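Appendix C. Worked example: Nitronate monooxygenase family protein
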Amino acid sequence: MRDLLNRLRLPVIAAPMFLVSGPELVIAAGRAGIIGAFPTQNCRTADELDRWLATITDELTVDGETLPWAVNLVTHRTNTRLADDLALVQRYRPPLVVTALGSPKPVLDAVHAYGGAVIADVADLPMARKAADAGADGLACISAGAGGHTGALSPFAFTTAVREFFDGLLIIGGGISDGFGIAGAIAAGADLVYLGTRFLAATESLAVGDYKQMVVDSDIDDLIVSAGITGTPASWLRPSLVANGLDPDALDGSHRDRNYQAGDDAVRRWKDLWAAGQGLGTVTAITPVEKIVTDLALQYQLAAARLDNHRSLEGSTHA
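Step 2, the predicted output written as structure tokens:
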């Protein structure tokens, strides 16, 4: 795993976003020096997933070596496609497999057999302990401020608490959308940082134009966290709810459905009702992934310089 981290320009994963992350985003992320990821549920069929995986593998293989990338599998028992999707994962061998909405156990043996690592999405400490006990190689801690289905814990508090019992790969996400936040998360004990909202308006994302523009035009005050749509707390863009005839302050839960199965009516809700996280204000234009990563890298370097300067000042004070 250390070898994988050492190959990155920045310790960042472009988080796998439902109906937003696709091959173009994953490829652009890998070429820019971070890890791109996508949920297999963004593909309607196994054949489409086969094509996506083949494209990503081909485009991210340089001189016989594959740049880091990740795929996200829903391991909940309601995912009737898990076996087929996992078979394709075994064929194309993404270095990282992220599990969501269930235990990582169903995919551990298959992914470990080809040398990959399994990362479990977790939103609280009980989930984190269960995933660690199940044998996950890493934990992706979804914290307060994340877009879509969100957590309740501070990213820093979550990191500290998990590090008390887990020394594997730790990914933290939630409200982090610039290089300064990335540096802070790494300093706090994370190995990688999930950034989702920062890439919503990327040129290469699958988000429709109006969604991207709403992300650019909105800020943190335009968000609402509610369980009224899916039954689970999620962070939504208020303007998208209003545009669909919903009162963000009076959601009665009549639209609840967390199912991610492609083709279901639930997908229509996620297409029309748009999610974003608290890093919203940093997105000021629709730009390519390469430009986003370059900006993040500059901020990350400035953050490191701040720490170095602080240490220098502290040293001179105690001299």
